Input
Amino acid sequence: MSAAQASYARRTQPSQPAGLPRLLAGIADHAAMTLPRHQVMHGPLPHARRGRGHGPGWSAGRLDLVEEIARAGLRGRGGAAFSTAAKMRAVAASRGRAAVVRGRPVVLINAAEGEPASRKDRTLGRALPHLVLDGGELAASALGAGELIVGVCESARACADGLAMAIAERASAHGAPPTRLLIVPDRFVSGQETALVNHASGGPAAPTFAPPMPFQRGVAGRPTLVVNAETAAHVALIARHGARWFRELGTPEQPGSALVTLSGPVAHPGVFEVALGESLPALIGAAGGLTESPRAVLLGGYGGSWVDAEHLCDLRLAEEHLRPYGASLGAGVVLVLSDGACPVAETARLAGWLAAESAGQCGPCVHGLDAIAASLREIVAGTAREGPRRVARLAELARGRGACRHPDGAARMALSAIEVFARELADHAEHGPCERCRRPPELPLPSR
Amino acid sequence: MSHRLRVNPIACEAHGMCAELLPERITLDEWGYPLLDGRPVDDRLIEHARRAAQACPTFALLLERERADDSVVSHIRSGR
Output
């Protein structure tokens, strides 16, 4: 394994607050944690000791897990930060209504990280697969699900290998639910809930029209809980240690710890576990500090929001703290853009990449994202007639008008860019391409 | 009973019939795709709305009765 890959598994530094790491405890660079070692590290699955009535966490009936997750205040870590307990209750309600017609629910763990700036889910699958599968198995047991599916991106081979090994280990060790891996193409939209459900049902990995939502009619028409891989891992720990323990870290609105992928000009980019509400400077410090002076930070993902570096020292990593900056932690992506890069050129390239990543199904996404990218390219070249106003209008047109959230993200990114990079946009309008435009691209954009 | 319009953006091919038949609720964007104003469809417009939905060549315009559990659906879709 190369140094760059290994750095993605870097665990939290000793200088971090007490109580961490939680998820990343015992992580190793070279191999996935085996089942015996996982059990020594975290203890057996709680339902294995159900009935003996001990332990601070979940130990009684099936639906108690959902209650414990509700008390913990766990929110999904795939980007939407929706209440995990509410999602589980929705599946349970659909199950009651439709079990006879549609069959037992399905639990679908989403480790299909189509977002190039996020590595946390593939890190979990590669290094700590049993934690992810524990959460899936617990949810399946709480919901009476008949099947557990784990979605992984094609290129994330180490992640698929780690999970496959763990699935095999568990099948021989105890009565795990039937579990299968679902390999999805490396597309940005592959990780959208309905795209995964569509693919798991035998269709293409493209989003579908919803509602019906996956919790109503998901894989093969069955009520389906789609849960992010990190969220599943948190479920595994909440079931063992309880809601009160979970809330010892984090903020009132977003309790717990979270995995964050930090990249850009920092000494040791990688995946870090932080207490939600942690300050961004502390995270950057844990990564060995900045190696270049920053211009801005992209938060949430490639479909996230730019925030000016002048706010960098004030930023705390939780939704309630980022909201005033118009930003969101999303899937835990923090990408620093250096002062040496041209933010307008970077944004134009990113917008072009996002346009190309559209599934091509919905008119407003196809046309809107293309037009946003074209407008930004004209701004870079200094040939735009309307400039940022046109970008803003196009972003409003694209937002909320696709079957999935892809156009919303691209619109959000573009809108934040024209606000944060107003100075550079005006410079380009006046003088055309700048010196920094000629530098090699800083944001990594996978060619597909 | 209140009704609401919804477009299936995957099915929609920008024929534009809907905006023709229900300009009170639907306009077209610069590429010809419908923009819904989001307001419920009242009794006065229901027949026009029904006709617009039926006239869509790709059945992309849906006229739906508002259901009790819709709050959950919209809640989850908005991601909050």
